[in-house]
Amino acid sequence: MEFEAIAQSLVEAGRFLASQGWAPATSGNYSARLAEGQVAITMSGRDKGQLTPADIMVVDGQGQPRVAGQRSSAETLLHTSLYGAYPEVGAVLHTHSIDSVSLSRWLLGRGQDRLVLTNYELLKALPGITTHDGEVAVPIVANSQDMVALSETVLTRLEALPAPVGYIIAGHGLYSWGATVSQARVATEALEVLVSCALQALLLDQKFA
Ligand SMILES: [Zn+2]
Q: What band does 122 get if pLDDT is binned at 50, 70 and 90?
């Protein structure tokens, strides 16, 4: 029963994220923690705008499929390593929005390995944030096809933060999370909108400098 309910919530969150244009060309992946160290996660290559519970599979804590022959995302390790390091994380959502992809690529290309968000009311949608004038740092890491190395880099960067809410892989996309799928969905939506605001602010600065 637990799997069916969680799979349904991942389907609904995934369809919403895709509806925002944040999962182009079957990209992105979504997961949630199950009992006994297992993880429900989207299968590789599925259209995120048309997800159904049949597109959700189960992997163990190391990302290995519980049903032989099923294939999860190539980025499964980026999900399972977060569950391993952060017991409070119950769901992880990964998007490939145009704004997070392009802004992170531009910033890292200029040596800036984090995006600092401040003075946005929507920051209060993130866990533990109660005012607009706090600061939320979102690490930007270089993209890689080596998931072991990439997950180690991500965990190192997150460990340096008091309360990490997400990170961006440059030129690739955003990872965010929450205690539940619905909380992860709110955090992901908030961060995507905040990234777009940061990009707009940068463009305005350049236009009127
Ligand atoms: Zn990705």
A: very high
